[in-house]
């Protein structure tokens, strides 16, 4: 369970990094 939670957290972080510059533009 802890591993899956960490994976979801990394996925959210990746989405945030991808959406960051896109939202600025």
Structural class: mainly alpha
Q: Helix count, per DSSP?
A: 1
Give the % helix. over 70%
- Taking all Cα atoms into account, the compactness measure Rg is 11 Å
Tell me the distance between the termini.
37 Å
Average of the residue pLDDT scores: 83
Shape by Cα distribution: rod-shaped
Overall strand count: 0
Order of helices and strands: H
Major sheet: size, sense and barrel closure?
none
Low-confidence spans: pLDDT under 50, at least 5 residues? none
- Strand proportion, as a percent range, falls in under 5%
InterPro entries: Tubulin/FtsZ-like_C
Keywords: GTP-binding, Nucleotide-binding
Protein name: Tubulin/FtsZ 2-layer sandwich domain-containing protein
GO molecular function: GTP binding
Account of the protein in words:
InterPro entries: Tubulin/FtsZ-like_C. GO terms for molecular function: GTP binding. This is Tubulin/FtsZ 2-layer sandwich domain-containing protein. The protein has 25 residues and is mainly α. The chain is built from one helix and no strands. The longest helix has 23 residues, at 2-24. The chain is rod-shaped and about 35 Å long.
Key descriptive features of the protein:
25 residues, mainly alpha
Topology (elements, then pairings):
Layout lengths: L1 H23 L1
Protein name: Tubulin/FtsZ 2-layer sandwich domain-containing protein
Organism: Nymphaea colorata (pocket water lily)
Keywords: GTP-binding, Nucleotide-binding
How would you summarize what this structure contains?
With 25 residues, this protein is an all-alpha fold.
